[in-house]
Design brief:
With 142 residues, the chain is α/β, with parallel strands linked by helices. The protein is built from 5 helices and 7 strands; from the N terminus they run βαβαβαβαβββα.
Length: 142
């Protein structure tokens, strides 16, 4: 599957952690700002061909021409499992991870180091690596 074949997501403002993890797992994911209305979120998602992720039942009920996925749990691991199971997603960590800060692509600069082409943030294989691999394993086992 190429980058262009992958789903892109637009996360409601309360789903910041989920958004960052989607980026880590290789998915182009934006987070809504507090200033955006529900209608604005739907319109932007339509323009950018994104699936809206939300915990807001009213947003889910609004008439729109975009896919809106309602997450019932507040628990991050339940949310990401539900999402990966529902859409039959794969993980692309670390080869196609995106910057967890700005959503830009990463380029490899050394064996276990990557740099964001957008904001310059650097990533490396550190203590957080085990947690990411554990989540990845759980998602791949769905």
């Amino acid at each position: 599957m190429t980058e262009n074949d992958r789903l892109k997501f637009f996360c409601d403002v309360v789903l910041g952690k989920l958004c960052r993890w989607l980026r880590i797992m290789g998915y182009d994911s934006k987070i809504a700002s507090d200033e955006l209305s529900d209608r604005d979120i739907l319109e932007e998602a339509k323009r950018e061909n994104r699936v809206v992720l939300t915990r807001d039942k009213d947003l889910k009920k609004m008439k729109s021409f975009v896919d809106v996925f309602l997450l019932g749990s507040k628990d991050f691991e339940s949310q990401i499992k539900d999402l990966f199971s529902h859409f039959s997603l794969n993980t692309y960590f670390p080869s196609d991870s995106r910057c967890s800060h700005c959503n830009s692509e990463l380029k490899k600069i050394e064996k276990n180091r990557w740099e964001c082409i957008g904001c310059g943030h650097e990533y490396w294989k550190g203590s957080h690596w085990k947690r990411i691999k554990d989540i990845q394993r759980k998602l791949n086992d769905l």
